[in-house]
Amino acid sequence: MSSVASSSSNPVNIASFHCVPLRILVAPSGFKESLGPEQIADAIETGVRQVFDAQQAIVHKLPLHDGGEGFCKALVYAKQGYLLEATVMGPVGNPISSQLGFIDSGRTAVLDMAAAAGLRMVPKNMRDPTITTTYGVGELILHALNAGCRKIIIGCGDSGTSDGGAGMLQALGVRLLDKSGKELPRAGGGKSLVNLHRIWWGGVHPRLREDAGKLRLAAHLRNLLACDRV
What we know:
By secondary structure, the protein is α/β, with parallel strands linked by helices. The protein folds into two domains: 20-64, no CATH class; 71-218, Alpha-Beta Complex (Glycerate kinase, domain 2), CATH 3.90.1510.10. It has helices at residues 37-49, 71-78, 114-117, 135-146, 166-171, 206-209, and strands spanning 22-26, 57-61, 82-89, 95-103, 108-112, 151-155, 175-177, 198-200, 214-218. The strands form three sheets. Strands 3-4-5-6-9 form a five-stranded mixed β-sheet, sandwiched between helices. Helix 1 links the parallel strand 1 (22-26) and strand 2 (57-61). The longest helix is centred in the first third of the chain and has 13 residues, at 37-49. The protein starts with 21 loop residues before the first strand and ends in a 12-residue tail after the last strand. One of its GO terms (molecular function) is glycerate kinase activity. One of its GO terms (biological process) is organic acid phosphorylation.
């Protein structure tokens, strides 16, 4: 150990002790409302290269997605699919530009909840979870169903909503009714659910009613009140 000791006036070149290139796996997740996994991986690689050059270290970047923002793009890229732009209702009710992806020769659609109802899309002065809506998520699902997809994978992370998916259901044709049989406001947010008495499924998109479109949720948490994780 004494042979590698160094004083502060004569720092050791760490890289000089490695004859065989280091193999470094960079596998970060994203930082909410900040950098995505790919950007973080690039930043880490930049830091590594300040110490080790390409001959001294081999860096392999593997950004990880937990179903949050960027999940769709990552899966589409990995499966060599394609993206489709779509205009949907945003979490505070305004039209926004969103997108969904298609893989497996168009048989499977992939979408981010964050791309239609993400926290990043909610202005800081409007961050009231009782009014934000998932209606736009339902509109993305409609695009996938109308495109004939047999399976739809939904990344559920980074949402800015707490309406229990009520807005999404309304976009898919489900009617939410109060005690008098009156329909709840469209995209009314979580606060409108206090008046929910009955759910009418008769108007749901026919491909869902016929079980022709399978929905799969991608989430990194297990919710015992909902279902088993897949």
